[in-house]
């Protein structure tokens, strides 16, 4: 089933569930601007995915943290013992 046909079926189902005709459903959609919100959501999702991808690339480029010379893990306290 191609995308246009699927959208028609989804639109028909929505109209039936709401108890309106397809023409009325389209009019309501235009008036409420739901189509614009959906487009905005998709754009925001794509932007977030791009930011995640760039952050992952940046993390991979960073060198691994240096190992501490202190053999006991943790930070060295004033008395020379692990904190």
Task: Tell me what the structure shows.
With 83 residues, the chain is mostly helical. The chain has a domain at 9-61. 66% of the residues lie in helices and 0% in strands. It has three helices and no strands. It has helices at 3-18, 22-32, 34-61. The protein is rod-shaped, with a radius of gyration of 28 Å. The termini are far apart.
The rounded Rg comes to 28 Å
Distance between the termini: 65 Å
In sequence order, what are the helices and strands, one letter per element?
HHH
The oligomeric state is: single chain
The largest sheet, given as strand count, sense and whether it forms a barrel, is: none
Strand content: under 5%
Range of helix content: 55-70%
Catalogue the unreliable spans: none
Task: Briefly note the structural class of the backbone.
Answer: mainly alpha
What is the general shape?
rod-shaped
Number of strands: 0
Mean pLDDT: 77
Tally of DSSP helical segments: 3
